[in-house]
Amino acid sequence: MVRRVVFCGLVSGMVLFAAAPAWAHVTVTPTEAAAGSETTLTFQVPNEKEDASTTKVEVSFPQEHPIADALVEPVAGWKVDVATTKLETPITTDEGDSLTEGVSTITWTATDGTGIPAGGFQQFKVAAGLPDDAATLEFPTLQTYSDGDVVKWIDPVVEGGPEAEFPEPAVTLTAGSGDDHHDTSTTTATASGDTASGSVQTAQDDADTAKTIGIVAIVFAVIALFGVAFAMYRKRPAAN
Question: Which of 2, 65, 66, 86 would bridge 134 by S-S if both were Cys, CB 3.0 to 4.6 A apart?
Fold first, then answer.
């Protein structure tokens, strides 16, 4: 009986350990996209801390396979800065135009004094023209908190390897059709509020589901620990 209770406790603890990090990771969706396509990248940033808010998010764009096309959706309470860099090799568009600059970083900074509060998250959307000469695009991200702490989401993700502690958001590029290719340009624009609202609601539902799973795991782990304590108490030898 004691072994069975201990086993249940270990299983519950493993479930809790596996579920918790998924809430905390900075991610980008979709995780797969057609090479050379116009794709809306959604960077989802959860707040990990109980006593501080997230006040700045800086996403670095790939330089070996540059992105010259960036349409940024405005977010209420945040200002955005799109930094570009001169390209060593110009990008040639479908029309034959030559572009000499690409996106270097996109930085969102909270302006309302709140940012992302404890227990919350925020989505930042970028419509980008993806390159057609890469297999994977990495987006190292820096998350700054109101207490000055900076979390660096820059650990490479190795397929089949151990889980990275602070994995960098990444998109795997797949072969696309000719219709997927885009005209290349760099600008900033406003996206539809209805579309953004629907996407945020979907992400909120996913987050709520993950939290529910985590809470259930915690309950089972606590029950298992009480079971172990009770079983050990019952097994104590009687006092003389």
Answer: 65
The answer, as to whether pTM is greater than 0.85, is no
Residue 28, judged by CB atoms within 10 A of its CB (0-12, 13-18, 19+), counts as: buried
Tell whether the model's pLDDT for residue 8 goes beyond 80.
Answer: no
- Torsion of the alpha carbons at 124, 126, 130 and 134, rounded to the nearest 10: -20
Q: How far apart are CA 186 and CA 203, in angstroms?
A: 27
How crowded is the C-beta side of 192, counted as CA atoms within 13 Å? 5
Convert 93-111 into a string of H (helix), E (strand) and C (coil). Answer: CCCCCEEEEEEEEEEEEEC
How far apart (Å, rounded) are the C-alpha atoms in residues 26 and 17?
A: 17
Distances (CA, A) of 98 to 21, 101, 134, 187: 43, 10, 19, 16
Give the Cα separation of 43 and 57 in Å (integer): 10
pLDDT at 92: 75
Q: Which residue, chain included where needed, has tokens 């890469």?
A: 134
Model pLDDT, residue 24: 72
List the domains of the chain with CATH numbers: 26-192 (2.60.40.2230)
CB atoms within 10 A of CB 215: 12
Q: Residue 218's pLDDT band (boundaries 50, 70, 90)?
A: low
Which of 106, 19, 21 minimizes the C-alpha distance to 71? 106
Cα separations in angstroms, 232 against 13, 65, 108, 218, 237? 19, 60, 54, 21, 10
Amino acid occupying residue 109: T
